[in-house]
Amino acid sequence: MAAALAAAPDATVGLVVLRVGRLGALGAMIGYASIDEAEAKILTQMQLVLRVGDRVFRIREGEYAAVLANLRSRNHVLLAANRLVRDFQQPLLLASGPVTLNAVAGAAAAPVDATAPEPLYRCADLACLAAEREETRTALYRPEEGAVRIEHAELHEAVAGNQLQVHLQPFVEVASRRIIGAESLARWTSARLGPVRPDQFITFAERTGLIGELTRWSINATLRLCAEVLRSPEAPLVSINLSPRVLIAPGFEQLITGALTFWNVPATSVLLEVTETALMEDPERCVAVMTRLRDRGLRIAIDDFGVGQASLSYLKRLPASKLKIDRTFIMDVVGDDRGARLVHSIIDLAHRLGLQVVAEGVEDEATLLRLAEMGCDLVQGYHTGRPAPAAEVLPLLVQAAPAPAR
Ligand code: G
Ligand code: G
Ligand code: MN
């Protein structure tokens, strides 16, 4: 890479960092030699997908890079990243048979994003994290992301010192328009940086390992605030987001059950939101943990449904009770006929599997009415209530709980 950068200091040089999941599991399933074989195949395939002159490298197991010399524009590096990720939709053909892996890719380009190898790698690496949240599973480095330099110590201290806030966003039952619960969303205003966007500090926490502490904080802070409301006989639900790795981390089950006991909250009042990405990491383990949690009475929701890459076969096995359709699909419900049909089909599919459906990101009445026609059970969005400090939303939950449908 250094050579490519030095050879043409003014030309646009792209860097794609590609992360491939599930390679480790492959070893356990079909033998460790298969990892080497898969890596060799991945590098060959990457080379085939790219142009002559582009170079591919192995960084470490499961992480690869492509250096694209002489790009016509910075956007072309994102196109290359898209092609690389799309290639993983086809199974990789190993000697023992085909295996399906999944990949995300982050892209950055010199000289706009950085001019030296290290900082350019850092940009592509940051983009890779952002990519996990994108529909395409790819992302181009966004300078705003790098600009906020969260420091490990300050987020650690904020979490340890209970300086984050719990905001709640109501869930509304479509048929009755009653609030039946709320999602807990963390907010952080740092003394040094001001308000930090949640996706930024959550991503930072995920990447630095602070996510374990942050989740413990989130569970305890949410249950502490909501305990009283959640103990009422016809209690509303409160949902807590779990980052992919958290659910399958050792000790998570003790953490959640311990917190329920400590705050004296019935397990049935708590919904855990898990994204499809979690399922991709270690599906067997994920299903096992979720099943034990469900058996203890906790409810599970599949969050951001539709933008991940989870195969529909997992949907069949998951002990979830709710499916949250990602807001990117809900935006299309009015005005895009095919988009609306897709949402309608997801609702039917979920119902056939015995799941309740939550539509995320409902921003207007027209969308809510369309969703009602489609049989959607619950909505969440700016139209029915923005995320707000817990103290503002809790009174709505108290009122909501015992009231009969109007
Ligand atoms: O809160 P929005 O308002 O911007 O949240 C952005 C993202 O951050 C969402 O994907 C949400 O799931 C996630 N998020 C918010 N709070 C928490 C939390 O306490 N834990 C985890 N893991 N994710 C959270
Ligand atoms: O990934 P998750 O579903 O947990 O993220 C919830 C995110 O959605 C939060 O960032 C929250 O602020 C945001 N959100 C909630 N309602 C709406 C809405 O109606 N429109 C938009 N654009 N975002 C919303
Ligand atoms: Mn969520």
TrEMBL record:
Lineage top rank: taxon: Bacteria
Residue ranges of every copy of the EAL domain listed in the record: 148-401
Annotated GO MF terms: cyclic-guanylate-specific phosphodiesterase activity
Residues in GGDEF domain copies: 11-145
CDD domains: EAL
Any one Pfam family match given in the protein's UniProt record, by short name: GGDEF
Name under which the protein is recorded: EAL domain-containing protein
